[in-house]
Amino acid sequence: MDRFIKKSLQEQEILIKDLINLIIVFKKWIVIVAVTVFSLGLVYLLTSSEEFTTSSKLLMEQSGGLNSKALGGLASITGLGNLGIGNQNTEALPPDLIPELVLESDFLEKLLYEKVYLKEASDSVSLVEFVNEYEKYNFYYHLVRLPGKVKSMFLPNTNVETEKNDTSISHEDEAILAFDARERKTIAQLRKRIEVEKEDRLLLIKTKMPEPLASAQLNEILSRFLKEYLTKIILDKDLKNFEFIEERTKEAKKRVEQTQKKLANFRDGNRGINSQLLKTEEDRLLADFNLEFSVYNSLAQQMEQSRIKVQNATPLMTVFQKPQLPTNPSEPKFLLLGIVFLVLGGILGILFFFGLLILRMLTIHFSHV
């Protein structure tokens, strides 16, 4: 190498032929680097557990049933036109946000204690138990976390105290999300095991687990919770409004029945008596009844309007493709990753050679200055 460098410095040029000959001379070191990188990659592949991927599809249907024109016609027929039923627009969640929403802690929190069946446990276990007790990791995962484990052996109380603080926060303020160490780890792993993509009006849901049945079960759980969660988000305001009006309608109905009963009792008790004072009292009771009935009738119309609005705003999501039990593992991809590690090793071997060449060239150059 030194002879090649001195010759190149003297002639102020590098001959490709000489460079190729030098590479051939150093091919042993290039091969050693390439084999080393490939061996490290092989360790990763051999210590990684098998993963099975399940896919399913949800079809996001357009709001069917009553469209705006139909609602307008119904409003004019039932006398609800003055309430603006035909002009209501329901705000829907933008479908493009759904893949991001699924990975949010607020949503994943609902999956933490859902159970999937594991052969290894011979029972159904929660996702928190799976991640913290049954999930297997490759060699490098344990190697990277070895210093932290050694440190925790000497400081065992730190994590316990942190978990206690997290739990107290979650109980004190429900508006703030707080998780213990096991739950945080589970949420982080779920983000790696769940993938949702939007394809036009289809939601493609992929889940990954080390066992086929667990993968399919997680996919079904995710699809079900996603439909419920989206429905809750979209209808939350409308449902609260409907429940409020429904409660007021029930109260108004009770008042109508009470005033109607008072009026009937008054008429039965004073039948055949001709008195202007009694006539005035009867008119007052009748006016109270008419007022309460008018309020009840108006609330009943608003409740019907709110019910139709909720039904029209409900996101229609149907299962387009059910989760299917996978038969072959999707990971690790031995052939693909083997080629990648081999090529990467060759590239790093060549870079190692050129790095060594440049370093030696600079050393010789500055030694003669």
Automatic annotation (TrEMBL):
Keyword annotations: Membrane, Transmembrane, Transmembrane helix
InterPro entries with a match to the protein in the record: Bact_polysacc_biosynth/exp
Membrane-spanning parts: 20-46, 334-359
Molecular function terms, GO-annotated: protein tyrosine kinase activity
GO cellular component, one term: plasma membrane
Keyword Transmembrane in record: yes
Name under which the protein is recorded: Lipopolysaccharide biosynthesis protein
Species the sequence originates in: Cyclobacterium amurskyense
